[in-house]
């Protein structure tokens, strides 16, 4: 994938700040919404930012390692939840709906034949999910590139449909384990700090997951620090698809709304390939999965919400979208001290 992501230009910064500061409120009193408005204005290169046709892209994929016991749930939950997304019954359906955000669900490599399914984006790289990284690479270099290209295609299609902000979500049993390995390899944080309970492992399950992931690292003695090598070795198809979608979305000047631990693992890969992507990212929330705090600290960022969510699917991103709308609304709709005839500080 050939990607060029320019850093967001700062020429409008002073003017945007002045516009925000002239609104009928004490300076800084809208807190994080003011920073958000500034960021959105700079990304869009305008004094009047707008969120248009927002979407959440949920990428789903299966993990060979799931059968080794890295999750509290069986692998079949991945395809069953995809069916649930399509039927409108999952948490992300409810939260996207209430936020006024459209949902797009993509099969990046789920081990299931969905049959003809008009509402499911077919981006299947393999009909059996990834290989088990305890035995070798989860995917080939070609499969990894294919998954990333599929993500880029979907992001560009959304842009053509008038969307200028994408929230990212995922579904894949075992993918917190994959995200832990990626995070360890790409941030250098000790594995123990980035392995968590995922869907709800008990203490014995957590110890087993940690031991399996140590084994996975030991099975790759020639370990490379290159982000695409790490992604192919330990990634999921949904994670690779997300990384590709994020890169294309930022290249297209869109706003990227980043969800929890797995989505941020995909971003770690993307940010190593194109560091300026971070200018386009709004970090929606801090997940309860402990490795997410490590990722956020590594990226030097602070998320908008801290609600103790640990679900994924893009649920945190859906909850953050109304804040993006609020940031645009105050910049575009509030009066200034001058226009409203309100006295400023003397
Ligand atoms: C019913 C159900 C719905 C979900 N929706 C998202 N996830 C979340 O849990 C999975 C990751 O956790 P682990 O690595 O422990 O398997 C992902 O599929 C993620 O999106 C779910 C998990 C379950 C069980
Ligand atoms: O932070 C997340 O996205 C997350 C945490 C646990 C399980 N699934 C997703």
TrEMBL record:
This is Nicotinate-nucleotide--dimethylbenzimidazole phosphoribosyltransferase. HAMAP family: CobT. Pathway: Nucleoside biosynthesis; alpha-ribazole biosynthesis; alpha-ribazole from 5,6-dimethylbenzimidazole: step 1/2. PANTHER family: NICOTINATE-NUCLEOTIDE--DIMETHYLBENZIMIDAZOLE PHOSPHORIBOSYLTRANSFERASE. CDD domains: DMB-PRT_CobT. Pfam families: DBI_PRT (PF02277). It catalyses: 5,6-dimethylbenzimidazole + nicotinate beta-D-ribonucleotide = alpha-ribazole 5'-phosphate + nicotinate + H(+). One of its GO terms (biological process) is cobalamin biosynthetic process. The active site is at 313 (proton acceptor). Belongs to the CobT family. It comes from Sulfurisoma sediminicola. The gene is cobT.
């Amino acid at each position: 994938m050939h990607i060029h992501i320019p850093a967001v230009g700062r020429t409008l910064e002073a003017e945007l700040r002045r516009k925000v500061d002239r609104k009928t409120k004490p300076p800084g009193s809208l807190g994080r919404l003011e920073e958000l408005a500034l960021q959105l204005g700079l990304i869009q290169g305008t004094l009047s930012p707008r969120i248009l046709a927002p979407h959440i892209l949920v990428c789903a994929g299966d993990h060979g390692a799931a059968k080794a016991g890295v999750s509290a749930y069986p692998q079949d939950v991945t395809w069953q939840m995809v069916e649930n997304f399509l039927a409108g019954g999952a948490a992300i359906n409810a939260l996207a709906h209430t936020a006024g955000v459209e949902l797009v669900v993509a099969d990046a490599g789920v081990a299931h034949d969905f049959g003809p399914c008009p509402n499911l984006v077919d981006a299947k790289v393999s009909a059996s999910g990834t290989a088990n990284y305890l035995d070798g690479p989860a995917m080939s270099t070609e499969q990894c590139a294919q998954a990333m290209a599929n993500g880029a295609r979907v992001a560009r299609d959304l842009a053509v449909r008038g969307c200028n902000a994408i929230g990212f979500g995922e579904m894949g049993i075992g993918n917190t384990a994959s995200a832990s390995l990626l995070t360890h390899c790409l941030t250098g944080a000790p594995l123990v700090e980035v392995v968590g309970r995922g869907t709800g492992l008990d203490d014995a399950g957590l110890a087993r997951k940690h031991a399996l992931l140590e084994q996975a690292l030991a099975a790759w003695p020639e370990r490379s620090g290159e982000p695409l090598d790490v992604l192919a070795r330990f990634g999921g198809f949904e994670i690779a698809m997300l990384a590709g979608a994020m890169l294309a979305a930022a290249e297209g000047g869109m706003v990227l709304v980043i969800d929890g631990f797995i989505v941020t693992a995909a971003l770690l890969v993307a940010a190593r390939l194109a560091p300026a992507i971070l200018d386009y990212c709004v970090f929606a929330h801090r997940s309860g999965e402990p490795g997410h705090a490590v990722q956020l600290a590594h990226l030097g960022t602070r998320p908008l919400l801290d609600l103790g969510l640990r679900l994924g699917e893009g649920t945190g991103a859906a909850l953050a979208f109304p804040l993006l709308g609020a940031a645009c609304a105050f910049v575009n709709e509030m009066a200034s001290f001058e226009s409203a005839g309100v006295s400023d500080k003397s």
